[in-house]
Design goal:
By secondary structure, the protein is an all-alpha fold. 60% of the residues lie in helices and 0% in strands. It contains seven helices and no strands. It is globular, with a radius of gyration of 20 Å. The two termini are 32 Å apart. 27% of the residues are buried. Residues 1-10 and 196-201 have low confidence and may be disordered.
Length: 205
């Protein structure tokens, strides 16, 4: 006897959720720019902005595939900054000649993608981590006065982007995510007003 498997639907965030996430993102980004050299304050704002950058970007790519990657991507977007701890403790073995630790490079993403090829049953996990790292590095490149040595160990050169370009892309992502959210909300409202087709559990067209 076969057991029916429940089909997972794509994740949906309400328009209110989109609004709250957007407002917190803007406050965190502005706070990070104004925090100056206060490591605790700047770090709190920066990590919050990293999480929300990943969240808002993946919300823009609505669908089951990206829903499966969301949690590992969010974790990776923050966990990668643990590589700053040796430098904070006075050890520079991860940061000699580069603005950020060596693990802030494309090499980390390549290693994760290789892991995805080796452990196929955990492919969503590894893909999620790779996406979280990529989005994290992208935001780091857009932070004023710093950059990322993307090509380490082949080059210590710092790669950077303008913060304005980062905010422009984020505005696009938020706009697309809001469009998906409003469309889904409209669809749900329409479904509530339609009768179900007997024996199927589906609503009538």
């Amino acid at each position: 006897m076969s057991v029916p498997v429940r089909r997972l639907r794509p994740m949906w965030v309400s328009p209110l959720g989109m609004l709250v996430a957007t407002v917190v993102f803007v406050l965190a980004d502005v706070g990070d720019q104004l925090a100056g050299r206060s490591r605790l304050l700047a770090g709190s704002f920066d990590e919050t902005a990293h999480v929300l950058t990943t969240l808002l970007v993946l919300w823009a790519f609505s669908g089951r595939f990206f829903d499966r990657l969301l949690v590992p991507a969010l974790i990776a977007s923050v966990a990668i900054d643990l590589d700053h701890l040796p430098g904070q403790l006075g050890y520079d073995w991860l940061t000699k000649g580069t603005p950020r630790p060596y693990t802030h490079s494309l090499l980390s993403i390549v290693v994760v993608l290789l892991a995805a090829l080796c452990w196929k049953h955990r492919r969503d996990l590894w893909f999620g981590i790779a996406i979280g790292l990529a989005i994290h590095f992208w935001r780091d490149m857009a932070e004023p006065g710093s950059g990322v040595a993307l090509m380490w160990p082949f080059s210590d050169a710092s790669w950077s982007l303008s913060h304005v370009s980062y905010l422009f892309v984020m505005a696009l992502a938020i706009g697309v995510g809001a469009k998906h959210s409003l469309a889904r909300q409209h669809e749900l409202r329409m479904r509530r007003g339609r009768p179900a087709v007997p024996g199927t559990g589906r609503v009538a067209n």
